Amino acid sequence: MNKLFFTYFLILFIGNSMFLNAQDILTLDEALKLAVENNVDIAKDKNNEATTKFDKARAFVSLLPSVNGSANLSESTGTNFDQITGVLRTETGQYVNASITASWDILNVFNKIADVKQSKYNHESQKAQLAYTKDFVMLNVVGRYLETLQAIKQDEIFSKFCDVQEEQLKRTQELIRVGSLPGQDFYTQNAEWSRLKSSREDNLNVLNTKKNELILLLRINPAEEIQLDKDLEAKLFKGDINIDSLYLQALEVRNDYKQLQSQALASKYQASLQRSRYIPSISLFYNYGSQYSSFQARTFNEQFLKDNITNTFGLSINVPIFNGMGVRNAVYKARQDYQNAELDVIQVKNDIYVELKNIINTISANKKKVTYRQDQTESAKRAYELEQERYYLGQGNPLDLGVAQRNYIEASLLLNQINYQLMYNRYELLFLTGSIDSLL
Q1: CA–CA separation, 284 vs 239, rounded Å?
Q2: Among the ranges 12-26, 63-77, 142-156, which has the highest mean pLDDT value?
Q3: How many CB atoms within 10 Å of residue 4?
Q4: Model confidence pLDDT, tens digit, residues 207-245
Q5: How far is residue 244's CA from residue 253's CA, in Å, rounded to a whole number?
Q6: What is the H or E stretch that residue 6 is in?
Q7: Where would I find the beta strands (DSSP E) of 353-400?
Q8: Rounded Cα gap, residues 36 and 440, in angstroms
Q9: Which helix (H) or strand (E) is 343 found in, with range?
Q10: What integer pLDDT is reported at residue 254 of this predicted model?
Q11: Is 102 a residue whose pLDDT tops 70?
Q12: Using CA atoms in the order 266, 271, 273, 279, what is the torsion angle rounded to 10 degrees?
């Protein structure tokens, strides 16, 4: 009974430990979600997007008439002129004035329409900027995540060869003791062991740096130790890897391209907004007001609410004649800004095509390099094993053995590097086609 209880408790403990360890692993999906939730640049762009959204609403409401209210309460001592009775007095008097004025620009409506259009495309531009910032941050997270995994794998490679070199050093000591190898071979092997341990420490420093950079991107507690998913598999691009089809897809969904398009349209309506300043403005206005004077015999309610009420209707015309070429200069600058924005759109279309072409060529080349470096690693491994066998048979020397081992280590590191580089290139293709947000 006790044995069954102990076995059950042990299984439960191991199961909980495995569950806790699994929970401690930060997957790439979780890292991407944390980055989107916590990144400072994304938070700033969200604030800017909210600002342009509010300005868009402001522009729509500006199409309506404007209404303003005013009131004035005063007491005057000395010579006072009562505007209601037309009498000049030298007494202290109290005055109350209040009015509500409504005005509506009925002619220069093009100004307001251009303002509505500009604010709309400013908002669209900022929305695209926010989406692009998310995409860019996600690509940075992927890069740091893969760089950290690459350093972890390199540490495993260095650790493996440190253990191999330690065993090799022990074996060399035994052969020196029985006289099969000269004594100086110990120092040669020991120097190689120290070099490997030093290289491992350098790599551990890189590993810690990359991990800390990832922590900063995710804005998580830097005091916490994070574990990454070492079994990560790259998300492959789904679709035909054809430059023309990828180019059309990128133009349709890439957020940086959408942003430039919206900026160009906003510049177009900014130019329209400036040109509208040439047009005269005609405004209808209506004023409702009343006033009270203590010099009159009637009560406040009688004066303010009945006797002194005024209703004023009117038409206001403002004709621009000359302002030192200020309007002309503003129109010219706005037109040039619009032309420059259109040039940016054309240029980024070319940039997108070249970026896609480069990444396709890079992926193709790196796929071949993976095959070549796999062959290089296998060949270097075989050469090292043969040189090690020759050395312990007394037919080789420690220098040749060291060269063969270094070639094997270098080939293993290069293979690890190209594997993670190819993995990153595939995520980069998702970014350049505007579909990296599919990872969320």
Answers
A1: 60
A2: 142-156
A3: 8
A4: 999 999 999 989 888 888 889 998 887 666 666 678 999
A5: 15
A6: helix 2-24
A7: none
A8: 9
A9: helix 326-392
A10: 95
A11: yes
A12: -160
Amino acid (one-letter) located at 359: I
Mapped onto helix, strand or coil, the DSSP state of residue 102 is strand
User: Which tokens sit at 53?
Assistant: 């959204």
H or E element in which residue 285 lies = strand 281-293
Bridge partners, 105 (sequence order): 283
Q: Using the 8-state DSSP alphabet, how is residue 96 labeled?
A: E
Check if the beta carbon of residue 212 is closer than 8 Å to that of residue 221.
no
Q: Domain 67-106+283-319 belongs to what topology?
A: Outer membrane efflux proteins (OEP) (2.20.200)
Note the pLDDT of residue 107: 67
Lookup: tokens for 308 = 């002194």
DSSP letter at 305 equals I
Residue intervals of the chain classified under CATH 1.20.1600.10 are: 34-64+107-279+324-439
Say which CATH class 34-64+107-279+324-439 falls into: mainly alpha
Contact residues for 360 (Cβ-Cβ < 8 A; gap 6+): 241, 243, 246, 429
pLDDT of residue 15: 44
Strands annotated E in 46-92: 66-76, 80-82, 87-89
User: When comparing pLDDT for 412 and 14, which is higher?
Assistant: 412
Beta-carbon contacts of residue 36 (< 8 Å; ≥ 6 apart): 42, 134, 137, 138, 440
**Per-residue pLDDT tens for 348-357?**
999 999 999 9
Contact at 8 Å (CB) between 384 and 405?
A: yes
For residue range 182-211, what is the model confidence (pLDDT) as tens digits? Answer: 888 899 889 999 999 999 999 999 999 999
Q: Where in the sequence of the chain do the CATH 2.20.200 domains occur?
A: 67-106+283-319
